Amino acid sequence: MKDASEYPSDNKLTGDYKYGFSSEVDSDTIPKGLNEDVVRLISLKKGEPPFMLEWRLKAFRHWQGMKEPHWPNFEYRPIDYQDIRYYSAPRKKGDGPASLAEVDAEVVKTFEKLGIPLSEQKRLTGVAVDAVFDSVSVGTTHQAELEKMGIIFCPISEALQKHPDLVAKYIGTVVPYQDNFFASLNSAVFTDGSFCYIPPGVRCPVELSTYFRINAKETGQFERTLIVADKGAYVSYLEGCTAPVRDENQLHAAVVELIALDDAEIKYSTVQNWYAGDKEGRGGIYNFVTKRGKCAGRNSRISWTQVEAGSAITWKYPSCILQGDNSVGEFYSVALTNNRMLADTGTKMIHIGKNTTSTIISKGISSDYAHNSYRGLVKILPSADNARNFSQCDSMLIGNNCSANTFPYIEVENNSATTEHEATTSRISADQIFYLQSRGLEKEEAISLVINGFCKEVFKTLPLEFAVEAVKLLEMKLEGSVG
Amino acid sequence: MTQLLASTPFLASFKASESGAFEDIPLWLKEARRIDACWLDSFELPSFRDEEWKYTPLTSLWRRSFDLVERLDGVIPEQLKPFLIDGARNVLVLNGHYAGEVSSLPAEGFAGVTLLSGGAAYDVFKDGRQYFSAVTRNDAELFCRLNRQFLQDPLAILVKPGTTAQGLVHILNVVTSPGVVVFPRIFIRVGQGAALNVLQSYLSLSSLTGGPQLNVPVTDIVLEAGGGLEYGERHLQSVGSSYIGAVRVWQKSDSSFKSMMSTTGAGIFRSNISVMLEGAGASAQINGLHDLHAEAHADSHTFLEHLAPDTKSDQLYKCILYDAAHSVFNGRVFVRRDAQKTSSYQLNKNLLLSRECRVDTKPQLEIMADDVKCTHGATISQLDEEQLFYLQTRAVGREDSVGMLVRGFMDDVLSTVSHPLIRKALMKG
Amino acid sequence: MLKIKDLFASVEGTQILKGLTLQVNPGEVHAIMGPNGSGKSTLSKILAGNPQYTVDSGSVEYDPGGRSFDLLGLEPDVRAKEGVFLAFQYPVEVPGVPTSMFLRAAYNAVCRHHGVEEMDPMDFDVFLHEKMKALDMDDKFIDRAVNVDFSGGEKKRNEILQMAVLNPRLAVLDETDSGLDVDSMKIVSSGVNKLRNKTNAMIVITHYQRLLNYIKPDFVHVLLKGRIIKSGGPELALEVENRGYDWLVK
């Protein structure tokens, strides 16, 4: 395994990516390649109930008959699915960590470096963290307090052992294993992820958070997250991700399913900063993720907020199925691409229930040689009386070699619907920066002012600390791009 | 499963009737057709996943067979009289064949305008072969090639540099018989600093005779530096007929193009309009008004490509849907790297007046230059109940109130039309 | 306060200023007139530090009171913090950034530079509304993005509002009258006049004499082909208005 010393953080390859280090961790990995035995082995290592293995095998067999999708606007090096390692876990002392104390010290140190302290003494206040290192969850904080309220927040592998009925009831109900190429692959080989269940009427008092880290080389990360908010429940969930700098591409194909029952609300926020490759586009994560929420109950609400600043290629469309009457779906997104990054992201809002409402606010920032596209679908089915949608998709270009595209699809089959879509394009120009500087602002302040102004509608939906972090992240990425 | 076009009854039908009918075409076109024939033979039918035809499936078309008509017969000019425009030069194209001019009043304001058909038109096409043979990114390429392969009697309209023709050239494109396919082809070239007004009316008389018809026209327009064209299309087709047409416009510097597409829909109605703003300072205004009833379908694909600096485009497409009508709008704005200081505006508005109607809209932006102003939008809504109520409290009946509000909805599109004869014709239609 | 000595400057390889010399003292208002292409706007951009303009030779010494700087060596924001203000001929549009947010950021940046306490949003709001009242500006104005969809007159008023907020020592007004009708010009000029005092100075660049009826200069300079070819009192402006520039060349 190459370690951080081979890619010191100040050399050309790493650029500004401050999470580019990798850790020396004693790992339990399986050989590269994918077949039914690998699927069985993963299930066995996880000690899963039989229904899960069956489901995985169905998914795998289905996946074998599927074709990898290709997007018309760009190309990427083909992925060799036999050249990926589907399981890598930091080796445990004994049979599994009974507590955080048993987690490999190197792993704990890694998360501390990333600003995610796992030990009970240092843990973050107001945020319960589940940390996923390569293929497995290595520790979840705040579990005891949450348990008292009946909230289940644990690795999905643990949930499969402790609450198999709950998992069986909901897994695959929003993203079925046949859904798409990457979702099927994930269904077959997912190794970990988080499971949350908020019981009826409970308002989760802390932010639940999962932090994903890809460490091992040639490893794909296939996590699966399932969040269920029962009647009248509320939860806010944060997700963060980083990976070390490596000059080959790594695949990240996650699936996230959200289910909100009557009067429930789920807020899901992501700050995605996977390694994006170097200036010439070498290396970086392929982030092909399926995220979908179902507003199954009346008056339920699902809200996605994402700040996408990393990955070599991102394909991601966090969506809402608005099935319950009066349900609400929201999508707030900032996607920044620089160097040679490609981002194709957006949402789908499927209106089924009556009086359903959706809001889409998307901000794309593109610089250098990057391509940034918004792709979204608003579909109003005949049953969705009085459905409402408002979409706003703005793009900002920095420099003259990047591109910004907007592909909104609006399909309306009910005449009581009202939909509105707006999009604009603007830029950060040297003139603007000079103008702001001539009023006393430093160059960095000037850029940050413009970025903040551009993204304000999205940032205000993030928890405060996350918003501050997000602005800093964007500033850091754009340094040197303007003027 | 993919299916070849060549294996459908569709292509076979008029391919058969074509034999021996095109002896008098020039050699260069024969050669071009030979190449196209190979292309057509290996053409795979678009699947239901194909982006271009996602909302306008053509499956019913492939099962049909159509005839090419050699000469017109049984034409009753009396029937066409209501569709002629007083004060304009009325050019008749019957079943794809040029049939001379009918002008009830002496038309004025055509200094510098030449209208050519037959061999003379082919000569003009040969001069402008880069346009004739061009494939743009929004052509419904198959149908452009079919047109090139089977066009029978082309027209060319030329305007001499520096001449402004105030008058209106009205091309009345009529399909009279059932089961007919026609491939009208028109080339309009407006010289430097010259100006012209053109209206095309597409009329199907199949309601009189029954049976399906298919109209596949291609209109190519070249505006030289500083040239101007106001262009209109009025579609009066029946649900039994299908229309798949392309309008392609190449604009040199400081030229200006304005178009208005008005339709009541058809069984399959697909309009592809592509504007290439090639010269600095060129501007285009592309507007449309769809008024769809019953089972009518109308699909508009617009493509605005900004290739040069300081170019401007403006689009306003409005659609009113009744009954089980279906409207599709796909607007693409493409801004190339060199097209700095471009401004582009696009808006698609839909008014839904029945439970059964359906709208699919996709306004797209693809931008590669940073110093540009691009805005697009789409709305889908109903009439405002409060406005209706307000009018009713002022003693206007509900139906009249609806009519009033619908007219209000259409008004700003119609008011973009400058030429009085075009506006009058469109309001009547 | 400002000493420009033998200044040569170019833009995109073309030399525009060719040996310009000018001294401005506290309390003075200098008008610079000249035909198109004479170098008026170039001078303003050089003083504000636009990176697209290069100084070939010469010097600009700036003394806001007690300290002296080589102005050309400072970044644009440092110049602004030290009290140099340029009212742009074509104010730049900054989409997405509300005017109020921008003004407060600018004001506080200057405060920080001078070690003065920053103003909180509430106090700033009161402060800003006073300034706006003086310029007869609508309240809604500050919620809109900086200069976006502003009319010509609104843009110019926004420039003077910024000047009022930042309270500069040396203000350069670049064709502030262009595109203004008479009423707007009166409002803008009275705003400028209110800011005039013994410790600051202004350079008013204009094409026409009419602005100088409202903002009375102490000195008038005629700029031609990158040099000041004649200086005088306010009467020089009238003479230029009547006779044009040709007589000065002979």
Mean pLDDT of chain B: 88
Number of helices of chain B: 11
> What integer value in Å does the Rg of chain A equal?
22 Å
Low-confidence stretches of chain B: none
Q: How much helicity do the residues of chain A have?
A: 10-25%
The secondary-structure class of chain B comes to alpha/beta
Give the strand order, joined by hyphens, for the main sheet of chain A: 4-3-7-9-12-14-17-20-22-24
Number of domains of chain A: 1
Largest sheet of chain A: 10 strands, mixed
Largest sheet of chain B: 11 strands, mixed
Q: Which structural category fits the helices and strands of chain A?
A: alpha/beta
Distance separating the two termini of chain A? 40 Å
Radius of gyration based on Cα positions of chain B: 21 Å
Helical content of chain B, roughly? 10-25%
Shape of chain B: globular
* Parts with pLDDT < 50 across at least 5 consecutive residues of chain A: 1-15, 93-98
Q: What count of domains describes the coordinates of chain B?
A: 1
Beta-strand share of residues of chain B: 35-45%
Care to describe what's here?
The complex is a heterotrimer of chains A (483), B (429) and C (250). Chain A is 21% helix and 34% strand. Chain A has 483 residues and is an alpha/beta fold. Chain A has one domain. In chain A, strand 3 (127-133) and strand 4 (136-140) form a beta hairpin. The radius of gyration of chain A is 22 Å and the shape is globular. The model of chain A is unreliable at 1-15 and 93-98 (pLDDT under 50). The model of chain B has no long low-confidence stretch (mean pLDDT 88). In chain B, strands 3, 4, 6, 7, 9, 10, 12, 14, 16, 18 and 20 form an 11-stranded mixed β-sheet that branches. Chain B has a 10-stranded mixed β-sheet with strand order 2-1-5-8-11-13-15-17-19-21, covered by helices on one side. Chain B has helices spanning 9-18, 27-41, 59-63, 77-80, 118-127, 129-132, 141-150, 206-209, 385-393, 398-414, 420-428; strands at 89-94, 97-102, 113-117, 155-159, 164-175, 181-182, 185-190, 195-204, 213-215, 218-223, 228-236, 241-251, 256-263, 268-277, 283-292, 297-306, 312-321, 326-335, 343-352, 358-367, 373-381. Chain B has one domain (68-428). In chain B, helix 2 crosses helix 7 and helix 9 (385-393) packs across helix 10 (398-414). Chain C has one domain (2-249): P-loop containing nucleotide triphosphate hydrolases (Rossmann fold, 3-Layer(aba) Sandwich). Helix content of chain C is 36%, strand content 29%. Chain C contains 9 helices and 12 strands. In chain C, the strands form 3 sheets. In chain C, strands 6-9-10-3-11-12 form a 6-stranded mixed β-sheet, sandwiched between helices. In chain C, helix 5 runs parallel beside helix 6. The two termini of chain C are 33 Å apart. Strand 23 (403-412) of chain A pairs antiparallel with strand 20 (358-367) of chain B, so a sheet runs across the interface.
